[in-house]
Amino acid sequence: MKIVSFVGETFSSFNDAYYTKPTSAAFLQDAIGRDNVFVCSPSVKVVDKPTNFSTEVSASKFHSFPAYKSTKDFALKSLLKKGYLKSYQNAADEVISNHKGAYFWIRTPSIGSIVFGLQALKAGEKVLHHMCADASNTWRDNKYSLPEKVFGFLLSRYIRFKLSQICSNKNTINLCTGDSLEKFSKKYAPNSTYQFVDLMVKKPSENYISTPASNTLKLLFIGRVVEDKGIYDLISSVSKLKSKVELTVIGDGPDLESAKQLSSRLNVSSNVFFKGQLPHSQLPQYLEATDLVVVPSNNYYEGFPRVIMEAWAYKKPVIVSDVGGVKAFVKHGVNGLIFKQGDKAGLLYSIQLLLDDKTLLALLTKGAESMKSLSNQQYWIEQALNIIEDDNEA
To answer: CA 46 to CA 199: how far, in whole Å?
Structure first.
């Protein structure tokens, strides 16, 4: 089996390899072997070898595509720059022609992936369509001006239309992360839509023992450090609980320095620890040492954050906001707590509740442990391979 994957993240090119953060390309490499995975994505050359990467692709397996900053940037270039979209389609056509008969993996709603997937379907090829986020309501974000919201709304409707074309095509297998995306896909392809998480966490060793809770509640945030991931709200909650909690933040992003400054202003620098971006192989030590993983996103694009299952793999319950498709697996009061999106008081209450009620924390920990059978990479590798095998036999 050969899979050509368009993942969308910008890779750093150094010598004869390309590097970036965790991606579905790394998942596919683990699933079918590095020699069988080709990657298409934007790239930039760097003078020093990157550190803390989780995806590495050899130059012979990589097809570089033009970079774009965002969906808005891609759309404006397509509208205003003559030949931009056509050149992107031509680049896709060339790759597809060189890999006839392969499976073509796309990760939407990345606009580059949508264009690539449509070209693959046009060529009559099989497409593995991983829907990992929802772009239909991102225009609602308060950071956008009214003209931007109008443009964003129209663009989101166009993207939904293109996604419906991909979902409904007879050559598409739809792999949906979260219940909201699964619901969308099933409207167009009820018989070729499946729940799927491109999980990177490996199954912990059998002798792994969960760290017992202490008087200080240890919280862990893993993800992109940006305001709409709820990091400011989480730091604010820590400031109200002071010495009762500790927060470790793993990740990088445009708001990292602002988050550090907020921590300092709120006098919780001794309770909030920023570790930066780490390779996936280093996450287990932090997952083992925490009591809870917190996913306080207040954006409109989440699918099902992978970090939830990463927490469950280490028997850790979660506190999550009710965004995207979290309810596909998170059950309130069973394996985690769910609070209303953007509800700062709800986030604080959830943390305070588990500080005060150790019986409930123990119950949620037991519920998290019950999810461990599907909270490891091998489970989802087997799911994906079985789906592809069934498609081949159909």
So the answer is: 28
Contact, 314 vs 288, CB < 8 A? yes
Strand partners, 179: none
Looking at domain 217-374, its CATH architecture is 3-Layer(aba) Sandwich (3.40)
Neighbouring CB atoms inside 10 A of 157's CB total 12
In the CATH scheme, what is the code of domain 3-199+377-393? Answer: 3.40.50.11930
3-class DSSP assignment, residue 171: coil
Residue 104, pLDDT score: 98
What is the DSSP pairing of strand 3-6 with strand 103-108? parallel
Q: What is the pTM of this model?
A: 0.87
Residue 298 CA to residue 29 CA, distance in Å, equals: 32
DSSP assignments along 337-351, one per residue: EEE-TT-HHHHHHHH
- The pLDDT tens digits for 319-342 are 999 987 888 899 999 999 999 999
Are 134 and 300 in contact, with CB atoms under 8 Å apart? yes
**Cβ atoms of residues 1 and 29 within 8 Å:** no
- CA-CA distance, 158 to 176, in Å (whole number)? 20
pLDDT single digits (tens) 206-249: 655 555 556 789 999 999 999 999 999 999 999 999 889 999 99
Q: Which part of the chain has CATH 3.40.50.11930?
A: 3-199+377-393
End-to-end CA distance of the chain: 17
- Domain span(s) for CATH 3.40.50.2000 in the chain: 217-374
- 165, amino acid identity: Q
Label the pairing between strands 172-176 and 126-131: parallel
Q: Give the rounded distance of the alpha carbon of 80 from its chain centre.
A: 31
> CA separation (Å) from 227 to 130, 140, 342, 346?
26, 15, 11, 17
Cα separation, 259 vs 379, in Å, equals 35
For 368, left (φ over 0), alpha (ψ -120 to 50), or beta? alpha
